[in-house]
Amino acid sequence: MKATPPVAAPSALVDAPEPHPRAAKVRTPASAPLPPAPSLLQEKTGSVGVARAVFGLLLIFCLTPWASPPLALALGLGLAQTVGNPFPAHTRKLTAKLLQYSVIGLGFGMNAHAAVQAGQEGVLFTVASIAGTLILGYGLGRWLGLGRHVTHLISCGTAICGGSAIAAVGPVLRAKEEEMSVALATVFVLNALALFAFPAIGHALAMTQNQFGLWCAIAIHDTSSVVGAATAYGDQALQVATTVKLARALWIIPVSIGTALLFKQKGVKIKVPYFILGFIGAMLLNTYLPALQAGGAWQEVGPLLVQLAKMGLTVTLFFIGAGLSMQAVKAVGPKPFVLGVALWLLISTASLYVILHR
């Protein structure tokens, strides 16, 4: 198994010059962390077969009713730190598509009227938090001495929807591959922490389902971790979190356009998150198609698709965890990680305070 080339040292990202306008377009998947290098055990014993067997057993377990999104992520992390991920290229490719199809499937368990109400409640939080995060990120990035591209990528990932936002904004910036990798690693490490920490905090503060769902959608980076944390909290929290988060993800488009204007990039292509339209279509079908209603000919189809979507999400988080090796974490370096943690803590605590006291 070939080792993945190491990510550039973080010091190279400090006050880095802007990339040449003709720099190659980065093709980093929307929800894929850094590909891990072979584990120490694999390097010493060459036990690729063992790694594949362990991977297969864990994957099968993630498809059972006993697996949950947090547990799947933990199993993936354990795999990455021990025998290693034997299929980094495959899991990296599957993660983004599997997440998108899972989100669409969740739409068959949602009611359009409730979703509109949840979206209206979260729109002001969305606008204020996105604008505030981008402004704070710019100031903190300058104070830390980070390059403009890394600062903007981490800020967009924190403000909108993690890896999806970074993958959309990166080509607009014509960012370098190492800049993309550092930003992705930063947000994925924080996603893993949030998936475990948020449900515990929510229960400790006795947050309602609506409160927790709204908080998840605003304060957790990636859609996969938002849905995973909300699923662990309750069905109503899941509905609120998914609706608000996907509405938030639509801000990729105006932020990408603003990025092109701010950084004076011409001839770039804006990446549109089309899977959100699939989610809306599934939700409308579930709400207005009589055959899917109680007593209808297809009344069992909706719950089945939702169950398959939740299984897909669980597998997605297992793949993400399997990609977070120690090499990926160490490659982030102190300064980008400080920026990511600072922004995350600020948006998490500020939104939590507003939600509990409004």
Describe this protein's structure.
The protein has 358 residues and is mainly α. It has one domain. The protein is 70% helix and 0% strand. It is built from 16 helices and no strands. The chain is globular. The N and C termini lie far apart (54 Å). The N terminus is likely disordered.
Radius of gyration: 20 Å
Cα-to-Cα separation, first versus last residue:
54 Å
* Strand runs, count: 0
Please count the helical segments.
16
Element-by-element helix/strand order: HHHHHHHHHHHHHHHH
SS class: mainly alpha
Membrane topology: Multi-pass membrane protein
Organism: Hymenobacter glacieicola
Protein name: Membrane protein
Keywords: Cell membrane, Membrane, Transmembrane, Transmembrane helix
